[in-house]
Amino acid sequence: MVEQDYQTNYSDTNPDVEKIDELRAEDASIDIDFDQPMEAAETLEEVPAALDVAELRQQLATLQAELEDRTNQSMRIAADFENYRKRTSKEKEDLEAQVRGNTIIDLLPVVDNFERARSQIKPQTEAEMTIHKSYQGVYKQLVDALKRLGVSAMRAEGQEFNPLLHEAVMRQPSADHAEGTVMEEFVRGYQLGDRVLRHAMVKVAAPPEDQPLPPDGEIA
């Protein structure tokens, strides 16, 4: 009893005790959540985060510029390669056409000889006719092979003289043909597509010569 009265009297008479009790009560009411970061820490973390975003944007812009440059380089390389492919393909085609044309030119005298034989040789006996048919069969095979290669023979006779296709080896005055008309074909010309393998050697009509005037006092 005496002790209880002492404590009561002590607290009543000592104001510091009351303050201590109040502070204890305030401390007990404070609820601290240690899982949430402090506001100061949040502010400190935002600064490097902003710096990282700016740096990433700069790196992204740099990479994008490099990508565009590489893309342009790739497009130029692809265009150069396509031009190179077309050029080499054209050169290959031209070379093949040149080789084919030169080979055919070497074969044209053989064709000429077959044609001369056909026009000049007149077989009389059955044996001669057999031989004639045999080499004419070879001639036909040769002509068919040239046609498959794209070779075509010119038909110059009766056509207007064309220096791109014909070679005039003779001019003859003629009243029956217009001036510049091919009167006769001596050597046949050949073409390979649009390319002239051999010009046709021809005789061309010239204007007729003036008739001499009759002597004086005579009627022509």
Characterization of the model:
The chain is of the alpha+beta class. The chain has two domains: 41-149, Hemagglutinin Ectodomain, Chain B (Alpha-Beta Complex); 152-209, Roll (Nucleotide Exchange Factor Grpe, Chain A, domain 2). Helix content is 60%, strand content 14%. The strands form two sheets. It has a three-stranded antiparallel beta sheet with strand order 1-4-5. α3 packs antiparallel against α4. The protein starts with a helix and ends in a 14-residue tail after the last strand.
Summarize the structure in short.
The chain is of the alpha+beta class and 220 residues long.
Chart the SSEs and their pairings.
Layout (H helix, E strand, L loop, with lengths): L1 H12 L1 H15 L9 H82 L5 H23 L2 E3 L12 E8 L8 E6 L2 E3 L2 E4 L1 E7 L14
Parallel strand pairs: 2-6
Antiparallel strand pairs: 1-4, 3-6, 4-5
Helix pairs in contact: 3-4
Termini separation comes to: 189 Å
Overall morphology = elongated
SS-based class: alpha+beta
Total count of domains: 2
Counting copies of identical and different chains, the oligomeric state is: single chain
Total number of helices: 4
H and E order: HHHHEEEEEE
Q: What is the second-level CATH architecture of the largest domain?
A: Alpha-Beta Complex
